[in-house]
Automatic annotation (TrEMBL):
Domain Glutaredoxin, chain residue ranges per copy: 17-79
Protein name per the record: Glutaredoxin
CDD domains linked: GRX_GRXh_1_2_like
GO molecular function per UniProt: glutathione disulfide oxidoreductase activity; glutathione peroxidase activity
SUPFAM superfamilies given in the database record: Thioredoxin-like
Keyword Transport annotated: yes
Gene that this sequence comes from: GRX2
Alphabetical list of NCBIfam families matching this protein: GRX_bact, GRX_euk
GO cellular component: cytoplasm
InterPro entries the UniProt entry points to: GLR_AS, Glutaredoxin, Glutaredoxin_euk/vir, Glutaredoxin_subgr, GRX_bact, Thioredoxin-like_sf
Taxonomic classification: Eukaryota, Fungi, Fungi incertae sedis, Mucoromycota, Mortierellomycotina
Swiss-Prot/TrEMBL GO biological process terms: cell redox homeostasis; cellular response to oxidative stress
Length: 101
């Protein structure tokens, strides 16, 4: 589990926006589409296509308390999932978070 933890923490530390996703998940698609429309450079980890996917998802649940995808980090801060991302967008707080990157 240490290798998985180190990988996840390194991804979050090295990238402004990280989306832990599953390729078939409609909420993941919606969240990634919003970020793409905003021209946000993001790192996406498709847990259903990654050999460490189940272990990563288990670690993310331990780290954030969130088992579901998408599991989104902006500026090393866990912001939650798709609904949380859209709430940040509608409140204007997403632009402020992205501006710090």
């Amino acid at each position: 589990m240490t290798a998985v933890k180190d990988r996840v923490e390194q991804l979050i530390a090295d990238n402004g926006v990280v989306v832990f996703s599953k390729s078939y998940c409609p909420y993941c698609v919606k969240a990634k589409k919003l970020l793409q429309e905003l021209n946000v450079k993001m790192t996406v980890v498709e847990l259903d296509e990654d050999e460490q996917g189940p272990a990563i998802q288990a670690y993310l649940q331990e780290k954030t308390g969130q088992r579901t995808v998408p599991n989104i980090f902006i500026g090393q801060e866990h912001i939650g999932g798709c609904d949380d991302l859209f709430k940040l967008k509608s409140s204007g707080k997403l632009d402020a978070l992205l501006a710090k990157l």
